[in-house]
Amino acid sequence: MRRAKEFQRVVRFIAIPLLVGAVTLVGFRLHINSFIAGFVYLLPVLVIAFYWGFWEATVASIFSVLCLDYFFTEPIFAFYMADPHDWVAISAFEIVAVVVSRLAMQIKNEATNAGEQRMRFENLYRISKEALLFDEPAGCSSQLVEMGREMLQAEGVSLWDAGTLKTSTSGLIQIDENELRCTYERALNGNHFERGIWKRVVWLGQRPMGVLSVAAETIDEPTLDALASLAAVAMERARMFEEKSHAEAARQSEQLRVALLDGLAHAFKTPLTTILSASSGLIEIDRMDRSQRELVGLIDQEARRLTDFTTQLLTTARLDGQRLKIHRESIPLAQIVNECGHECAAVLAQHPLSLTVASSERIWADPLLMKLALNQILDNAAKYSCPASRISLSLHENTAEMVIGIHNEGSYIPPEERHLVFTRFYRAHGSEYRASGTGIGLAVTKRIAEAHGGAVWVESDLHAGTTFFITLPHGPRES
Amino acid sequence: MSDSPGKLLIVEDDSALRRSLRTTLEALGFEVGEAVSGEEALTLASMSRYETVVLDVNMPGMGGIETCRRIRRSFTRLPILFLTVRDSEDDKVNALDAGADDYITKPFQIRELTARIRSAIRRFRSPEVPAEAPVVIGDISLDPARRRVERGTIELHLTPREFAAMHLLMNHAGRPITHAQLIAALWGPGYGDEREYLRVLISTLRKKVESDPAHPEYLLTDSYVGYRFRER
After folding, report:
1. How confident is the model over A154-212, as pLDDT tens digits?
2. Strands B148-151 and B140-143: what pairing?
3. Is a pLDDT exceeding 90 seen at residue B169?
4. Average pLDDT in the A227-235 region?
5. d(CA B131, CA B168)
6. Among the ranges given (A206-215, A280-289, A326-335, B153-162), the one the predictor scored with the smallest mean pLDDT
7. Number of other CB atoms surrounding residue B74 within 10 Å
8. How many Å apart are CA B225 and CA B179, to the nearest integer?
9. What is the rounded distance in angstroms from the CA atom of residue A180 to the CA atom of residue A185?
10. What is the pLDDT of residues B87-100, one digit of tens each?
């Protein structure tokens, strides 16, 4: 490209004396006087100034002055002027030629600039429109570098995304990822040119997003700036799109799981209802001998267990779904614990339950859910604590919340397992053979406590035993 | 007729449960009619004189709630007992608001079901008492004409609204009254969701009526659904 320009220039500087010479020849043959010749010489100078440039025109004007002097002023065929008027005329000619060429050049430059500006705006408009219309924001960086290369007329363009650590490249560009990372970490503003490559950090507001690099000798910096801001917006859009689709996928799989669990539990519940109504009906009708009664009792008992399990599954499915509704009431804790005591009567039969809660002490919670949560802990305490040991329940109040503590002896939980006991289907090592259970219980407690805006945790000591804590926020003050 | 346990209609789309209920209840002496859908139930109810309807809430076609509404339109006193399959509280509330007398959650024990059926039939057979007749349940007696409520021999001082609540609950003793029904009856139809008022009212009533308000004996809570007064 540079060669072509130099060649063009040489051709022009050869053409200028030829052109001036041709004008001289014509003028000389026609025997025009020096006054008219001056005007005739202005013509090629102006044309050259307008089409080729100021310097070319200046050279042409000097040639013209020489020719004027040599061929048209007295004495002819000598670079000498006898009449001082001719000196004035020729100087005026030169000044007019230079000023006019200068003006012509300015007009031309402005026209070119305006044209370039228009082109740049058109390009930017096109690229930003296309960047906004990328149908899939995830693949937009490759489209963006492609368009950038075309727009900047560069050999290659690459865009490195600091979030995904991915590089999109178009054309030929040799750049090392470590170098990009260095540029990114230095987080410099503006464009940097090094070894034939332009680099710039892409900023979104105050946040660096990645690095845009362009392989080109010269570059239109405003276009590069615009490209960088477009890249930032496009990258941010891609990132948000990805986050949204991840969240959507997670939500869908969660929904599916809940729906599946819900469906299964319902499918189990229908036949269980029939089995239970039949078994409890047989017991109620009471026309059986001893062994029959015992067998029917077994059926009834196990069907009830299966029902409880199904109900629990259904409840967890419902609790895990996003649609957990809480109906808070101010309820006496003692009443809930008593009801739990009835429900867990079978397991609690072997453990005395001591309650250090005044019957007037109230908590602000959903009664059914709270009962379910406490049931799980009491059940757990009864199953894993030392045989016939005491289980005690207490309620403390501080400025921020109510703290319910359920303490039992034994059942040491090592620190690394303490947060695991609240995950679903987790059962402590060695507990597989100790107690029957499903392992969903404490997960339910955790979910319920959190749905109330509270928390649950466990403290355990080899000698002192294990205490589970549930916190609940205070309710509105009773008037 | 009054010495037979009673005649009831079971409306349930699940054939296994229907058969099991029918066999059991017949063995226990009840006279049982069966319907597989709400439409069939309406036909049967108009053809034969039943004393209680046991109605499944989830049925294809008309559905339990709509069936209940239509039965209630033709038979104002016929007790309707709902079977709710989900522990969905909304179903229970909807059923009660549609005119059902009580609900029982699947899976249930036959003993519990028969107790509810017997109590419903007893209410159905007892002559209709005028709303102004005195009511006595356990220790508590309420005389609408004199606007007096007594526990044993002690007179309880109630505000007019507390009295109205006691009267409503005692007239429907044993049956749950939903929050919405209570609020509409006590505050008027303009109040839809003022649960807080009701909660405070019941808690002050308990302090006056119950010997241990933390463990109520008469004014019982049906969680999520409403309140019920103990049956005699």
Report:
1. 888 888 888 778 888 888 887 788 887 888 887 777 777 777 788 888 888 888 888 88
2. antiparallel
3. yes
4. 83
5. 10
6. A326-335
7. 10
8. 7
9. 9
10. 677 888 889 989 99
Question: Which among B92, B215, B223 has a CA at the least distance from the CA of A371?
Answer: B223
- Spatial CA neighbour of A415 closest among A396, A403, A425, A428: A428
- CATH 3.30.565.10 domain range(s) in chain A: 329-473
Q: Closest by alpha carbon to A227, among A242, A214, A241, A208?
A: A214
| Chain B residue whose CA is closest to A287 | B27
**Ranges of CATH 3.30.450.40 domains, chain A:** 137-242
Record: contact B87-A311, CB cut-off 8 A: yes
Q: Which CATH superfamily is domain A137-242 in?
A: GAF domain (3.30.450.40)
Read off the pLDDT of residues A128-146 as tens digits, 9 standing for 90 and up.
777 777 666 666 777 788 8
* Sequence ranges of chain A with CATH classification 1.10.287: 246-320
Say whether A285 and B21 touch across the interface (CB within 8 A): no
Domains and CATH numbers, chain B: 7-125 (3.40.50.2300), 135-229 (1.10.10.10)
Q: What is the pTM of this model?
A: 0.56
- SS3 call for A434: coil
Task: Tell me if the bond preceding A75 is cis, omega within 30° of 0.
Answer: yes
Radius of gyration, CA atoms only, chain B: 18
CATH top-level class of A329-473: alpha beta
In Å, how far are A270, A379, B190 from A265, measured between CA atoms? 9, 22, 40
Q: Which residue is listed with tokens 């990258």?
A: A235
Question: Do residues A358 and A366 make contact, with C-beta atoms less than 8 angstroms apart?
Answer: no
Contact A281 B110 (CB under 8 A): yes
Range A246-320 has CATH code 1.10.1070: no
Per DSSP, the three-state class of B232 is coil
In the prediction, which pLDDT does A432 show? 47
Other beta carbons within 10 angstroms of residue B125's beta carbon come to 11
* Distance (Å, whole) CA A225 – CA A228: 5
ipTM of the complex: 0.80
Q: List, for residues A350-398, the tens digit of each pLDDT value.
A: 788 888 877 778 888 888 788 888 888 888 888 788 778 888 888 888 8
The rounded distance, in Å, linking the Cα atoms of A61 and A94 is: 6
Q: Distance (Å, rounded) from C-alpha B9 to C-alpha A238?
A: 63
Identify all chain A residues contacting B108, using CB atoms and an 8 Å cutoff. 273, 276-277, 280
Across the interface, of A284, A287, A307, the residue whose CB is closest to B114 is A284
Whole-angstrom Cα distance, residue A263 to residue A255?
12
Task: Give dist(CA A7, CA A16) in Å, integer.
Answer: 14
Report residue B193 as tokens.
Answer: 């969701």
Nearest residue on chain B to A303, judged by CA atoms?
Answer: B107
